[in-house]
Specification:
Strand order of the largest sheet: 3-2-1-4-5-6-7
Number of helices: 8
Shape: globular
Distance between the termini: 34 Å
Structural class: alpha/beta
CATH architecture of the largest domain: 3-Layer(aba) Sandwich
Radius of gyration: 18 Å
Helix content: 40-55%
CATH superfamily of the largest domain: NAD(P)-binding Rossmann-like Domain
Largest sheet: 7 strands, parallel
Number of domains: 2
């Protein structure tokens, strides 16, 4: 399908899932706004690479998703928002009684509150344009839980709940809101974990991936960032017009257990 003439804002998109989605959106013709909290030459170079290869107007706009005013300013600076993907996220692992308060606050702010602020800023633009898609990257942890991840699980459950609210508030408008719930996706961050996992458990690469990293993912395969982008593009298609207020799991069967 063609997304030509649409503008997609993707938070936390200078690497990983966000960058993969950005490429697929641009390949479908959308103008893309990349985002992260940094403002490096490399960030702007990524946008230029996408623009040059796809012929789209792809830009990079710095905004710290832990700050409410910067979340809203990102949307305003973009000037248009037909497709909003809330993807920015961080993680910290610790038991509840040992969980640092500042880590809890940061995870809730970046993983959950940022989506509220960007959506609040984007909906008026979508209503003016007469079309809109809100796509939130939740997680398998938005539907189930794991120990030692209290803030992340709480935030991702919150994202799923907020997605449903946005869908109900826009149900009679040409706007949809859905959440994609990935399991393990092969990103540079995950790739970096593999050598440490091999060393910790004294395993070869394939065994460490299957028995440790993908322990809860029945397919025993990582999803790819391109697949995540493909799902996001589908949610922008005419075929997905009546898909709203739901979750789409891309988790190799994790939540089927």
């Amino acid at each position: 399908m063609s997304l030509k003439g649409k503008t997609a804002i993707i938070t936390g998109s200078n690497s990983g899932i966000g960058l993969g989605v950005a490429w697929e959106m641009a390949r479908a013709g959308a103008d893309v706004v990349l985002n992260s909290f940094s403002d490096r030459d490399e960030d702007h170079a990524l946008a230029k690479d996408i623009a040059d290869e796809t012929g789209t107007n792809t830009r990079y706009i710095k905004a710290d998703m832990s700050k409410a005013d910067e979340c809203r300013a990102l949307v305003e600076k973009a000037g248009a928002c037909d497709i909003l993907m809330n993807n920015a996220g961080i993680q910290h692992v610790a038991g509840i009684d040992e969980f640092p308060m500042e880590k809890w606050d940061a995870i809730i702010a970046i993983n959950l509150s940022s989506a509220f602020h960007t959506t609040a800023a984007a909906l008026p633009m979508m209503r003016t344009a007469g079309w809109g898609r809100v796509i939130n990257i939740a997680s398998a942890h938005g539907l189930t839980a794991s120990p030692y991840k209290s803030a992340y699980v709480a935030a991702k459950h919150g994202v799923v709940g907020m997605t449903k609210v946005v869908a109900l508030e826009t149900a009679e408008e040409p706007i949809t809101a859905n959440a994609i719930c990935p399991g393990y996706v092969m990103t540079p961050l995950v790739e970096e974990q593999i050598p440490d996992t091999m060393k910790k458990y004294d395993m070869d690469r394939d065994t460490a991936i299957r028995e440790v990293l993908l322990d809860r993912q029945p397919s025993k395969e990582f999803a790819t960032t391109e697949q995540m982008g493909g799902v996001a593009v589908f949610l922008c298609s005419d075929a997905a017009t009546q898909i709203t207020g739901t979750t789409i799991s891309v988790d190799g069967g994790w939540t089927a257990l």
